[in-house]
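Tokens as discussed.
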């Protein structure tokens, strides 16, 4: 029996879609994801600084960036001694910064491992809608638990599993709004990606400022409120979404035990898996912006003071999504211009370009490290690096999301979206391991290492462009 959901019609066409060009469900998913990313990036932007300057030290910053301190007790954090002993058994003694970097990598990595579980549960048992809602509730609980220092690692567990249920299933619902072969799908994912980055942009302006003005826990609390706002919007927009793949199979009386994958489907699965493997190093380099680049922004960057208010270093995390929001329509227009001339790169070629640009962006930081030396320097260095880095991201990340929904077998599309995020798991963990060298290597050598890793990955993708395109089909 064939995979009937592949032939299912999209959501009914509405007057809104005729005027705007996209179904209303896209914009409900846009704002749901915007608030979820607000919560995630608001917490992530504070995470390393919170561990280094508050949670794991005996003299704690009262507020982010404040010179006022209070006595702290790292031993009160449940599980810290056990986790630290495990890491030190593998990597040797760890000072606070390398320990925080390792934990940052583990957290952001596991956030992208659990989507495999979330995709499996959605495809087999719960359906995408219920799984998204469950994930949102778990994440909101995690954010609110961050109010307790002792519950830090328990809060991270809620966030990790909540994100795993939420993330793959919100993305696959975007693809479900469009019929097979609809050219609007790539552009829909670029619009959706703007929602992701609108949330990321606002998060650090709000959460970072609250942490700097009122205290760390106000920033984390705002992240939890953002997650709840996303769930409200998602609930309101249910009638505008396509039926779950699981619901469609039940309506078509497809047995739970579907047929094995065909040889063509297996080729597509294996090709996607190979591409995910190449993405690992990309994400390891990219995620330095929330780890070592945030430390650079906090410790080695002079932030301006406007009307007596010194801009918090956490605002640095908002520059990347700001560039994405401005750059996405420009890049879509550029691709459309290339398409008219028959020169638009394939999806895999775009991803290769993205990785090369990512690597080259850190040449800016090599120069910056030489200029700044042991002191502090201009905002130009981290912002110029991030500007280039973001162009690389736009060539790879939304294109990859769209690619998965186009070529993955429909009955395992959420699972394959989870596999896509699995590359982010490995990459994020590797980012923590790489980041642990930040404090022991000369800074220019550290950033030069990132350059070499990014460029080498892009060249590898370019070399595999033709064989991957043959395996994935002409639609890529």
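Sequence:
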């Amino acid at each position: 029996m064939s995979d009937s959901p592949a032939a299912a019609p999209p959501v009914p066409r509405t007057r809104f879609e005729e005027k705007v060009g996209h179904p209303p469900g896209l914009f409900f998913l846009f704002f749901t994801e915007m608030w979820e990313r607000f919560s995630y990036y608001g917490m992530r932007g504070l995470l390393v600084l919170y561990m280094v300057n508050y949670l794991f030290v005996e003299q704690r910053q009262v507020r982010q960036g404040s010179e006022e301190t209070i006595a702290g007790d790292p031993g009160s954090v449940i599980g810290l001694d056990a986790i630290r002993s495990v890491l030190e058994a593998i990597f040797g003694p760890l000072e606070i910064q390398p320990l925080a970097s390792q934990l940052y990598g583990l957290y952001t990595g596991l956030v992208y491992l659990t989507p495999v579980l979330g995709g499996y549960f959605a495809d087999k048992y719960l359906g995408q809608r219920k799984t998204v809602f469950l994930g949102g509730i778990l994440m909101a609980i995690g954010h609110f638990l961050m109010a307790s220092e002792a519950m830090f690692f328990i809060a991270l567990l809620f966030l990790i599993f909540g994100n795993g249920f939420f993330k793959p299933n919100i993305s696959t619902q975007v693809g479900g709004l469009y019929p097979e072969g609809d050219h609007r799908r790539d552009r829909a994912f670029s619009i959706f990606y703007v929602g992701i980055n609108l949330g990321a942009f606002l998060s650090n302006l709000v959460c970072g400022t609250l942490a700097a003005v009122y205290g760390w826990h106000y920033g984390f609390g705002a992240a939890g409120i953002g997650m709840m706002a996303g769930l409200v919007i998602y609930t309101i927009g249910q009638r505008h979404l396509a039926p779950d793949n699981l619901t469609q199979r039940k309506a078509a009386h497809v047995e739970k035990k579907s047929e094995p994958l065909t040889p063509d489907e297996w080729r597509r699965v294996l090709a996607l898996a190979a591409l995910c493997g190449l993405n690992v190093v990309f994400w390891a380099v990219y995620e330095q912006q929330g780890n070592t680049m945030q430390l650079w922004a906090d410790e080695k960057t002079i932030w301006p003071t406007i009307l007596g208010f010194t801009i918090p270093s956490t605002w640095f995390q908002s520059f990347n999504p700001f560039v994405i929001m401005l750059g996405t329509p420009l890049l879509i227009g550029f691709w459309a211009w290339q398409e008219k001339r028959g020169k638009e790169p394939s999806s895999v070629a775009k991803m290769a370009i993205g990785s090369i640009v990512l690597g080259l962006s850190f040449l800016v930081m090599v120069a910056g490290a030489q200029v700044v030396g042991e002191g502090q320097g201009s905002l130009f260095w981290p912002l110029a690096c991030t500007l280039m880095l973001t162009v690389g991201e736009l060539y790879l990340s939304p294109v990859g999301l769209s690619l998965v929904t186009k070529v993955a077998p429909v009955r395992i599309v959420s699972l394959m979206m989870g596999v896509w995020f699995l590359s982010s798991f490995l990459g994020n963990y590797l980012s923590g391991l790489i980041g642990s060298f930040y404090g022991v290597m000369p800074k220019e050598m550290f950033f030069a290492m990132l350059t070499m890793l990014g460029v080498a990955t892009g060249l590898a993708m370019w070399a595999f462009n033709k064989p991957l395109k043959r395996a994935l089909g002409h639609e890529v």
